[in-house]
Amino acid sequence: QKGYHHRTDVNKRIYRIGYGEDRQATDSQSYANNASTAADPEPKNINPLGGFPHYGIIKNDYLMIKGSVVGLRKRVITLRKSLGISVRRRHAEEINLRFIDTASKFGHGRFQTAKEKVDFM
Fold it and tell me: Residue 116, Cα to own-chain centre: how many angstroms?
């Protein structure tokens, strides 16, 4: 069998493991600002203004990886480690995210949060 049962990627860099808004009901913490970094002036959500094109709003846990993933947007993918050990320097470096773009993906988005848009208007 091909395709649906064999969607496996190897050696993807994982930038962030984020928790969704629906996790708020089970834990005492709030996961509404799940895209904030140390450089952001305001807490923000991973969803861009208006949602992702052809996907919608992310409410569950998510995984931010480097590169692209083949196939449909909502299809399940299996990530696994490679059998050989990578000795490349870029694989050993620590990942430090400075900025996550949450501007609207429809048209020319220039605001990162809804509060920022309201303050400008």
Answer: 21
Amino acid in the structure at residue 53:
P
Which residue, 56, 57, 39, is CA-closest to 97? 39
Q: What is the mean pLDDT of residues 23-43?
A: 69
Mean pLDDT of 8-24: 78
What pTM, to 2 d.p., does this model score?
0.70
Where are the alpha helices (H) located in the chain, listed in sequence order?
Answer: 89-92, 114-120
Up-side HSE of residue 51: CA atoms within 13 Å toward CB?
Answer: 7
- Distant-in-sequence, close-in-space partners of 115: CB < 8 Å, separation ≥ 6: 42
| Helix H or strand E segment including 114 | helix 114-120
Hey, is 87 helix, strand or coil? coil
Residue 119: DSSP 8-state: H
Copy the structure tokens of residue 15. 């930038």
d(CA 111, CA 48): 9
Q: Is residue 25 helix, strand or coil?
A: helix
SS3 21: helix
Q: Strand ranges (DSSP E) for 6-115? A: 8-10, 14-18, 62-65, 78-80
